[in-house]
Amino acid sequence: MIINFWGNLKGLLRPPFRGEKRVEYELSRKASVKDIVESFGVPHTEVGRLTIAGRDISFSSPGSHDDRVDVYPLCPPVDVLTPTLLRPEPLAAITFAVDVNVGKLASLLRMAGFDTFYRNYISDPELVMVAVQEGRIVLSRDTDLLKRKELVYGYLVREIYPEKQLAEVVHLFGLKDQLQPLSRCMRCNGLLQPVDKEQVLDQLEPLTRKYYHVFHQCSECKHIYWPGSHLDRMLKVLDTL
Q: What is the arithmetic mean of pLDDT over 47-62?
């Protein structure tokens, strides 16, 4: 079997194949195309299209000796709300579950208004279970996590720095027009609601009481937000997307 890996998938191949476009696979047992592709190091979550001789196939398609399989990467904007041959059960909404290795990305996604699950201490199986049960896209830098068979929607984050990771995710899923800045709590993911200053006055520092008059409070953890230099920095990050 001949397999052609296209685009950025070549960089995900395990040594000694990394960077190669065309690889050969000796078919010694019955295996699905998904299993064969992942045996070279590429998580199924990174695959946007599979074809044999120009004909689209599913992950479960069996491989055969004479096949020439083309494996294409995800192509922005990725539409997770519409069924495809590879992912016939679409998501109801664009929401995320973030792995600990990109933990700071969770706060930035929440800052941008996206429903984002994150826990400091959670096992890979637990994270995948949350994602599957709640219909979330897993974001991680762990290829082994993204290869878990239960997982349907996920993405291997390439960028190192959190702000660039945010831009990467927004671009991939076409979310530029869906930003809702400061609508979610960066700490717990709860929704922010306007609150009268008088209701939270006893929780404010003296200078905050003096200079600020517009406040929002998380409906879950009750953390209080108000305009300031921190808000300006956040909005500046979103303006660069």
A: 96
